[in-house]
Design a protein that fits this description.
The protein has 16 helices and 23 strands. The protein has about 525 residues and is an alpha/beta fold. The two termini are about 35 Å apart.
Length: about 525
């Protein structure tokens, strides 16, 4: 299509991303932007491309607030898991894990940690800016909005050690953060159940959030989402008491003992908001989570990096101590052995592709050993490269979070390229919200679209996207509100959705009736002004 030719999407209902009721209008695209939203009575010129979208909703491209697809530009195969859902922008670098900065002295430590969740890759850069230059050269399937990760800053400054930073090391982390922000990072993320962030205290994070300034966001995977959920919310609020923007990643109550209390958590966040705190959250529409299998281990197990972890996994004494810690109710760390139960911890990928789909309890029965020792044997055999799905939430709590007006939608999909049986959220999050949770009345269509578009654009200062308005970038989705649905299941998690008919990026048609059109039309974004 010529940049001078208009494309008219006619006959549809425009849901513009603001939450306003849908309205019958055409959408005119030209030069990569939305040119106009004319009334139905207005006719396109004879030389325009006219696309009949009668019966469809036309809305802004969706923004995935919580993605781990940092590695997509470096894959030879196009990752279409998000674009076929209507996602045109992904916020990456979440949970404290970004692909830079890399200090040469800690490069091996970083690579082995990343290898627990990312497919094998070469770190051919040191600074955050150099990472972005390499990503630019690879090209983007979806628009790329990167955060810089606290875990990575810590490794670059002083490795994977269980201690607080010295003043000099804190200065190094702050300088690396500022360098990343200047290079184009949208903010800072933390993952306080993962090494080495699990070893940090709130004071360390306060120093870093001070350096963010008022316009960038601090997104946190909190220290505990189970028994100590409320304490973790308070820690996150305390970390940003300097007035910084706080975004809580994948808010959930991940323990049977906490089921039914999500309303209380949201009340506390509402009180903070009403007092002037800038706090938001995202969620995914599933009652199971997923992460690296090493997250089942107590924090002390991770001190010193991956080689130390492997050594402890081979030590009967270390495993005895870990089993005592995991069996102790009320532990302060995220204890999936108790919050989910070993029967509900399911292997989703391994380096060898063995054991995928088996629960840890099942592997223990087959081996005639304890669940922790079965998991330890698997981790040693796979050189720590294994992920899991944990069934641990209550559907009623999921609905409560999704109904809250400051809940954006994030898939929390793990990095593509690891194979196995990933969590279905990677392929189904956004159509699942529009299908299951809109059609059953949990949230209105216009409000669901707002949470996927203008709300995340505001939270992360994503420029020129998030609403359908003349002059903004033409990231546009055409969907059927009657048939849109996720196809991915836990048993068959890579099935694409239905009901997403057209996806445009910058005015370029990139997906048509569920078929990827083969062009990486995404861009790396830089933070906008608030």
């Amino acid at each position: 299509m010529s940049t001078h030719q208009q494309t008219w999407l006619t006959g549809g209902t425009v849901v513009d991303g603001t939450g306003r009721p849908g309205e019958a209008r055409s959408v005119v695209l030209r030069g990569g932007r939305v040119e106009a939203l004319p009334a139905p009575r207005e006719s396109p010129p004879q030389d325009a491309e006219v696309v009949d979208v009668t019966g469809l909703v036309v809305c802004p491209g969706f923004i995935d607030t919580h993605s781990h697809a940092d590695n997509v530009p470096f894959l030879t195969q196009d990752d279409t898991s998000k674009i076929l859902q209507g996602v045109t922008t992904e916020v990456v670098g979440n949970c404290g894990f970004s692909l830079a900065p890399v200090d040469p002295a800690g490069a091996a430590d970083l690579a082995t940690l990343m290898g627990r969740i990312f497919p094998p890759m070469e770190f051919a850069w040191t600074s955050f800016g150099e990472l972005l230059a390499h990503a630019d050269a690879g090209g983007y399937v979806t628009n790329y909005a990167p955060l810089v990760g606290h875990n990575v800053l810590r490794i670059a400054a002083f490795g994977s050690l269980d201690r607080a930073p010295t003043p000099d090391e804190s200065t190094v982390m702050t300088a690396l953060l500022q360098d990343a922000l200047e290079a184009g990072a949208f903010g800072l993320s933390s993952g306080l159940i993962y090494p080495p962030g699990v070893f940090s205290l709130a004071e360390e994070l306060q120093v870093l959030t001070d350096a963010l300034g008022p316009d960038r966001v601090y997104a946190t995977h909190m220290r505990n989402e189970s028994l100590h959920l409320r304490d973790s919310v308070r820690e996150a609020l305390d970390t940003t008491r300097n007035g910084r923007r706080l975004h809580i990643s994948h808010l959930k109550a991940a323990d049977r003992a906490q089921w039914g209390r999500m309303g209380d958590v949201l009340d506390e966040l509402d009180a903070a908001w009403e007092s002037g705190r800038l706090v938001t959250q995202d969620a995914y529409p599933y009652a199971a989570g997923s992460t690296m299998l090493t997250a089942i281990l107590p924090p002390w197990f991770h001190d010193g990096g991956s080689e130390a972890v492997l050594s402890r996994l081979r030590s009967p004494e270390a495993l005895d101590r870990a089993e005592r810690d995991l069996a102790r109710p009320g532990s302060r760390f995220e204890n999936f052995a108790l919050s989910a139960g070993w029967e509900n911890v399911v292997v989703s990928s391994t380096a060898s592709d063995r054991h995928v789909g088996s629960s840890i309890a099942q592997l223990a029965r087959e081996a005639g050993t304890t669940p922790l020792r079965a998991a330890a044997q698997l981790l040693v055999e796979e050189d720590l490269s294994a992920t899991m799905v944990m069934h641990m939430m209550d559907e009623a709590d999921v609905r409560t979070v999704l109904a809250h007006p400051r809940t954006a939608i994030g898939s929390d999909g793990l990095p593509p390229g690891t194979g196995g049986r990933p969590h279905p959220r990677t392929f189904g999050t956004f159509p699942r919200v529009l299908g299951r949770y809109v059609r059953d009345g949990t949230v209105l269509l216009e409000e669901a679209v707002r949470r996927m578009t203008s709300l995340p654009a505001e939270i992360f200062a994503i420029p020129e996207r998030g609403t359908l308005r003349p002059g903004l970038v033409a990231d546009v989705v055409c969907l059927d509100p009657r048939t849109v649905a996720d196809g991915a299941t836990y048993e068959d998690p890579t099935v694409p959705p239905t009901g997403i008919h057209r996806v445009y990026q910058g005015g370029t048609l990139v997906a048509l009736d569920g078929a990827w059109q083969g062009r990486r039309a995404g861009r790396r974004l830089t933070p906008g002004d608030r």
